[in-house]
């Protein structure tokens, strides 16, 4: 069973889940599908559109700055997820693997990663502002709140990274 694998590290599994979420749901193809086929006024449509928040692209019609900022947000989301999974003590302090603290540590790591990735990438915009940075961080944290439970489940049952 994948969740009971004694060789799976919690930070590694959570980072892999974050990478898959970003690669699949942040892709231009999914974002276009979600925009064309979902209703933003329904809960399901809103959530399916939210999944595409860390968009990455390689469209030549966009400005280089927009491409770099969008891609940087997606890259930072994955890297910061790994960082926060190592820094958050929930699963480290748990006596047994697979406890609820691992789930919440993984979920919280994704919330923090989403907020900070958005905040940091705002600095690279053409006219960054403090209000824009706060709004972007709020959007990133909201993404992490509603999608991060997937990363939380991925971290269940893993060891802390060093044995």
Write a brief caption for the model.
With 163 residues, the protein is mainly α.
Please supply descriptive tags for the structure shown above:
single chain, mainly alpha, membrane, transmembrane helix, transmembrane
Along the chain, the helix and strand elements come as: HHHHHHH
Which term fits the overall shape?
A: globular
Main beta sheet, described?
A: none
Distance between the termini: 21 Å
Number of helices: 7
Instruction: Calculate Rg over CA atoms.
Output: 16 Å
- Determine the mean pLDDT: 85
Number of domains: 1
The percentage of residues in β strands lies in under 5%
Secondary structure: number of strands = 0
- Low-pLDDT segments: none
Could you estimate the helical fraction of the residues in percent?
55-70%
Structural class designation: mainly alpha
Keywords: Membrane, Transmembrane, Transmembrane helix
Transmembrane segments: 12-31, 67-88, 100-120, 140-159
């Amino acid at each position: 069973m994948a969740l009971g694998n004694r060789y799976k590290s919690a930070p590694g599994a959570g980072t892999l889940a974050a990478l898959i979420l970003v690669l699949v749901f942040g892709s231009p193809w999914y974002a276009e599908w979600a925009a064309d086929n979902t209703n933003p006024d329904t809960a399901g449509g809103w959530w399916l559109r939210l999944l595409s928040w860390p968009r990455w692209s390689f469209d030549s019609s966009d400005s280089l700055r927009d491409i770099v900022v969008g891609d940087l947000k997606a890259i930072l989301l994955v890297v910061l997820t790994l960082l926060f999974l190592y820094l958050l003590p929930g699963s480290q302090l748990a006596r047994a693997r697979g406890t609820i603290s691992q789930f919440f540590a993984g979920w919280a790591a994704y919330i923090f990663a989403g907020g900070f990735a958005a905040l940091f990438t705002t600095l690279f915009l053409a006219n960054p502002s403090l209000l824009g940075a706060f709004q972007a961080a709020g959007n990133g944290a909201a993404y992490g709140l509603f999608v991060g439970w997937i990363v939380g489940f991925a971290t269940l049952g893993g060891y802390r990274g060093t044995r």
